[in-house]
Amino acid sequence: MTPIKNISIRDLHARTGAVVREAAAGVYAFVVTDHGRPVATITPFVESEPRRSFRDRRILPAFAKIEQRGLTSDSSEGISVDRERD
Fold first, then answer.
1. In whole angstroms, what is the distance from residue 82 CA to residue 9 CA?
2. Among residues 70, 64, 21, which one has the least CA distance to residue 45?
3. CA–CA separation, 9 vs 28, rounded Å?
4. What does the mean pLDDT of the chain come to?
5. Backbone torsions φ then ψ of 83, nearest 5 degrees
6. In angstroms, rounded to a whole number, what is the distance separating the alpha carbons of residues 32 and 73?
7. What is the distance between the alpha carbons of residues 53 and 3, in angstroms, rounded to a whole number?
8. Considering the entire predicted model, what is its pTM?
9. Strands, E, within 1-86: which ranges?
């Protein structure tokens, strides 16, 4: 876990480059304070996993049944089919 250090806005203004480099390297995470009150954080950037598009997601079995019925995109058609079955 990265140690956390408080830094005032005034100190951040004077040492912005050094603070950002320390945060990026994981040396410290910074809590920026304004008159002693926390107002922001500076932490290392973590690359997230690329997001999958909706089309690439795995279809759950319950939804696969709907797809097998060959229904159109009109939800009322699916509702009518379900009502006729009962």
1. 62
2. 21
3. 16
4. 84
5. -70, -35
6. 51
7. 36
8. 0.55
9. 4-8, 29-34, 37-42
